[in-house]
Amino acid sequence: VQWDKDWHAEYAIAETEEEWHRFRGSKYMQPNVKDIFPKIKKLLDNNDKVLFVGVPCHVKGLLNFLGKNYKLYFVLY
Predict the structure, then answer these.
(1) What are the φ and ψ backbone dihedral angles of 10, each rounded to 5 degrees?
(2) Among the four 10, 22, 55, 71, which has the fewest Cβ within 10 Å?
(3) Exposure of 17 by Cβ count < 10 A (0-12 exposed, 13-18 middle, 19+ buried)?
């Protein structure tokens, strides 16, 4: 989860180690899921590895959205 330009928490994708800095720091609010699930599905369909960090209800939402078993890595918080 990162801050958007208006200081709202949102899920985002980092493809390089240098991009990870955006996710640092605590965010004590519900992040915007918006279009992250289709982006994750596209990565998984391309056989990319995905680490999803989220609350249990967002993990369940992602699994329901995907509709089939993919090899995923999760960190629940």
Answers:
(1) -145, 150
(2) 71
(3) exposed
| Spatial separation of the C-alpha atoms in residues 15 and 7, rounded to whole Å | 22
- Read off the pLDDT of residues 28-71 as tens digits, 9 standing for 90 and up: 888 988 899 999 999 999 999 898 888 889 999 999 999 988 88
> Residue 48 and residue 26: Cα distance in Å, rounded?
27
- Main-chain phi, psi angles of 32, to 5 degrees: -75, 125
Eight-state DSSP code of residue 32: B
Give the contacts of 69 (CB within 8 A, at least 6 positions apart). Answer: none
Tens digit of each residue's pLDDT (9 = 90 or more) over 16-34: 888 988 898 888 888 988 8
